[in-house]
Amino acid sequence: xxxxxxxxxxxxxxxxxxxxxxxxxxxxxxxxxxxxxxxxxxxxxxxxxxxxxxxxxxxxxxxxxxxxxxxxxxxxxxxxx
Length: 81
Hints:
Blueprint: H1 8-20, H2 26-41, H3 46-80
């Protein structure tokens, strides 16, 4: 775990980036930025990082779709019962 100090303006700017990049929190943006920095300094292919990051986002989205589907099924069953 790491801690980062941000000015209110820096925090607001990062918070605005979250929805634009499909990221749920400033913590996730920081994690992604640090991973990209590490990948670049290690000579890792940046495209490989992007693919890995996209897979991670897709997994989160799939989990959210499943959660919403469960809610809809529960409500539909409750109305039918």
